[in-house]
Amino acid sequence: MNDYPIGYLIKLINDRLKTKADADLKSAHLTLAQSRVLAFINQKGGQTTQKEVETYLDVAHPTVVGIISRMEQNGFVACCMDPSDHRNKIVKLTRKAENAGKDMEKLISEHEELLLRNMSADEKKELQRLLEIVSKNID
C-alpha cells in the first residue's frame, strides 16, 4: 500500500467521483453541479431563490448564474422574478427535472455502492464517523 497523504487521497477520490458522475449524467444533459442544484431545489419543495442556491453551493454569484442559465436552457428549471422582492430570482423545477431526479437517486445509490463495495457494515460506519470528524476539523 502506498503512503499517500490523506489530503491527496481525498482530492483523488473527489476528482474521480466527479469525472464518473459527469460521464454518467452526460446523457441526461446534466453535470454533477447541476444535479446537486436539482437535489437542493427538490429538498426546498421544488422552488427556491437563486441566492439560496448560491449559499448552498458556496460559490460566487456569476457561477450560479451560469449553472442556472444552462439548466434553464436545457429545460430543468424555470426562473422568474420574486414578486415580493424584484432583486430575487425564483428558480423552480420543471417536470423534466422531477423525472431526472428519480434517475439521479438511482445513480447516487449506485455510486455509493461502488465506493463502499468491499467494506463491512462496521467499516462503513467507521469511515462515516472519521469523515465527519475530518469535515468538522476544517470548518
Task: Summarize the structure in short.
The chain has 139 residues and is an alpha+beta fold.
Keywords:
139 residues, alpha+beta, Arc Repressor Mutant, subunit A, 3 strands, 13% strand
Low-pLDDT regions: none
CATH architecture: Orthogonal Bundle
CATH C-level name: Mainly Alpha
User: Largest sheet, if any?
Assistant: 3 strands, antiparallel
Distance between the termini: 30 Å
What is the overall pLDDT average?
Answer: 90
Dominant shape = globular
Tell me the Rg in angstroms. Answer: 17 Å
Proportion of residues in extended strands: 5-15%
Relative helix content: 55-70%
Number of helices: 6
What's the order of the H and E elements? HHEHHEEHH
CATH topology title: Arc Repressor Mutant, subunit A
Describe the structure.
Helix 2 packs across helix 5 and helix 3 packs across helix 4. The protein has 6 helices and 3 strands; from the N terminus they run ααβααββαα. A 3-stranded antiparallel sheet has the order 1-3-2. Helices cover 67% and strands 13% of the residues. By secondary structure, it is of the alpha+beta class. The two termini are 30 Å apart. The model has no long low-confidence stretch (mean pLDDT 90).
